[in-house]
Amino acid sequence: MKTTLRTGITVAQICEGFVYNELEGKGLFGLAGKLTIQPEYQRNYIYAKENREVAVIESILKGYPLGLFYFNTVTENGEKRFEVLDGQQRITSIGRFLTGKFAIQDSNGMQQYFSGLPGDLQEKIRNTVLLIYECEGEESEIKEWFKTINIAGIPLNQQEINNAVYCGEFVTRAKEEFSNSQNANVTKWRAYIRGDVYRQAFLAVALQWVSAAKGTDVGSYMSAHRHDKDINELKTYFCSVIDWINSIFTDVESEMCGLEWNRLYETYHTTAYNPQEVHRKVQELYADPYVKNRRGVFEYVLGGCTDTKLLDVRVFDEATKKAVYKQQTAAAQAAGKSNCPLCCLGHDSSRKLWDLKDMDADHVTAWSKGGATDISNYQMLCKSHNRAKGNR
Ligand SMILES: [Zn+2]
């Protein structure tokens, strides 16, 4: 990887064409449009709250070092562009001050905006040189490099790193769609996808889904599409999955959030469902106190209500188990038969009295076939017969 230390770029150059987005709370561009300041990482602009942005300006006025800045260099269509890897908040602070977004206190305790400062102080700020490392390299090198630096004190997550490594038109467009808190769809997506839009959670999921469907991984997908001018495939696949969920499940339950919806889509999207029937079934299972795993309800219904393992149906508690065992064993002893009703039907163990630890609880009529989960529908079976009976 090529790293070049630049010592000649001034605050004035960095802030040329500075754009600050009030809604998103972040600095967007600088260096006359050649520098992308913040969209890659989509952090909220946290300096403002902590008054640290004033400290950045005071450091400049006092001639204190501002520290190093790291820019990632991308050459696109023969033109060099830069992305701020480290220093986003410092640059945003400087840009905000130069564009009159906040004031500092002067030596007389007066609030001063940039435009109100004496000319020599304005010039001092504008001519301050930043120490900038321009980094240029192969994807693998930049990835490696990311591992060795800790950016802005908050470690980047995998998607944030991928966005930097594969930065380009595709990532920019993908973020406009999936990492944009102003996008009205984000609210809808939150029902099914967990995570923070600022930390790229929705983009990460959208990319995971489409790359899985294409039989590849996110890194390879992003690399292959890096210079695409559109995100049609990514967006289309994502919307197919979301629309499919909406078309089948009319209810939005909190347990739907974070399920492997792309897997469910791939498995079941060619099956026809009646949304009203699905709704009735989901509500019934939600009302069933024996369903322990509500997150499994949706796949259970999609799969035709057969795989009860998904629901983790509650079995009887130990006290009830002991009571039934006692009753069953006493009756078996009196009749000279095995305390396992199924052993009674056979030859080998027809008189065997099993210990409690060698028996398991069983519903006489399986739960999935409508059997009640109360004591009248409950028996103890020896372990091998219980296993053989299966389907509880
Ligand atoms: Zn048995």
**Ligand identities:** zinc ion
Proportion in helices: 40-55%
Query: What does the radius of gyration come to?
Result: 32 Å
* Ends apart, CA distance between termini: 60 Å
Give me the count of strands. Answer: 11
**Number of helical runs?**
18
For the biggest β-sheet, the strand order reads 1-9-5-6-4-3-2
Q: Roughly what fraction of the amino acids lie in strands?
A: 5-15%
| Structural class assignment | alpha+beta
Low-confidence stretches: 40-48
Main beta-sheet strand count, sense and barrel state: 7 strands, mixed
Q: Taking all residues together, what is the mean pLDDT? A: 86
Q: What overall form do the CA principal axes indicate?
A: elongated
Q: What order do the helices and strands follow?
A: EHEEEHHEEHEEHEHHHHHHHHHHHHEEH
What's the gist of this structure?
With 392 residues, the chain is of the alpha+beta class. The chain has helices at residues 11-14, 47-50, 52-62, 88-98, 119-127, 139-148, 158-165, 169-178, 185-189, 201-213, 218-225, 232-248, 261-268, 275-287, 297-302, 318-335, 341-345, 383-389, and strands at 2-10, 19-21, 26-30, 35-36, 68-76, 79-86, 104-105, 111-112, 129-136, 359-363, 378-382. The chain is 43% helix and 15% strand.
